[in-house]
Amino acid sequence: MMQEVRTAASRKKTPLPPARPDGRLAGSGTSFNHYQAALQYLQQGKYEKALDAFNKLLATAPPAIVERCRMYIATCRRQIEKPSLKFLTPEEHYDYAVSQLNVGYYDDAKEQFQAILAGHPAADYAYYGLALLSAITGQSEDCLNNLHRAIEMNPKNRLQARVDNDFQSMVDDPRFTELLYPELP
Predict the structure, then answer these.
(1) What string of pLDDT tens digits covers the 185 residues of the chain?
(2) CB within 8 A of 109, min separation 6: which ones?
(3) Which listed residue, 3, 43, 80, 116, has the most CB atoms within 10 A of its CB?
(4) Hey, what long-range contacts does 80-83 have (CB within 8 A, 24 or more apart)?
């Protein structure tokens, strides 16, 4: 699971190294480019990659950024060693997955729904969640397949989907209508 975690370090804009008397940045060139790339990894939550990049940079970094590299290395290690999320029930896990979906962390939401299904294959609500995610992200085939599974496992999901605004992108698809209203001629 790769959850986007914003650290205090990643929320701040990192100031550039001080300028030299000739106006160029101290550390400009390859070291500075590597520093910027490592910072991007950190800000994207790719802590392993950021840790590797900062460690490699440490040997050749200009003095102006050595201490920052050490600070970011410590931040990466804390994030990597951070315990993973634990859920008491699959329903609690589902609530977390839906919260990720609601804030737009689609990749994490998908991982969470899939993790629920890995441990609880009969969790119709996880298929429903995957169907919602697919509808929101414009993947109509996946939406239909997952919603079909959810309805097959629990027919109440059909009623829920009929009133769920998150399926708005699917309303013009005749296969979606047929799935929700099979009794219509």
Answers:
(1) 334 344 444 444 444 444 444 333 444 467 778 889 999 998 988 889 999 999 999 888 888 888 889 999 998 888 888 667 788 999 999 999 999 999 999 998 999 999 999 999 999 999 999 999 999 999 999 999 999 999 999 999 999 999 999 999 999 999 999 999 987 55
(2) 97, 98, 100, 101, 129, 133
(3) 116
(4) 80/47, 80/48, 80/51, 82/5
Measured between its terminal Cα atoms, the distance across the chain in Å is 44
CB 108 within 8 A of CB 134: no
For residue 63, what are the CA distances in angstroms to 48, 57, 143?
24, 11, 53
Residues 27, 61 contacting (CB under 8 angstroms): yes
The answer to pTM > 0.85 is: no
d(CA 122, CA 185): 31
Residues 6+ apart with CB under 8 A from 78: none
Given phi > 0 = left and psi -120 to 50 = alpha, else beta, which region is 12? beta
What is the C-alpha separation between 128 and 146, in angstroms, rounded? Answer: 6
